[in-house]
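Supplementary Text 2. Reproducibility record for the structural model of the 138-residue chain.

All settings were left at their defaults, and a single model was retained for analysis rather than an ensemble. We include the record here because the model underlies the residue-level annotations in Supplementary Table 4.
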Amino acid sequence: MKFTNGGAYNMMLSLNNMIQKFESKDVSSVILFGIMRNIRILSTELKEFEEIRQKLMQKYEIDEKHKNDEDLNDRIQKFESELSPITEEEIEVDIHHISYEFDKVQTVLEKIDIPISLQDIVFLQLICKQPEPSTKDE
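Retained model, structure tokens:
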């Protein structure tokens, strides 16, 4: 599946956040496995992107130590300007699809009352088994 580096990075962050939310809940091991496996896949695919992002954060001193500096906004703009072309680069990611369709995942999440964002829903749909196309007899 094609992603931009930025899209894949956002998906990885979203999946990591879901794991944190699910830690204390009784979430299906199938769902947890799928999320964790995809985090590993995305981490591997984004290794170079993350290395460059970290170097740029150091270069422009974007960290807690410098968060109150007067020129922080200028440095953030320079950081984003330099990172942006790399963020838009496309990569191929071999997403692991779990054995559940999204309807089943949604039902599980509703039962344990875990609030998730629209972005989380989109990423969960991407890792779920796709429903079989219905065939209509005419």
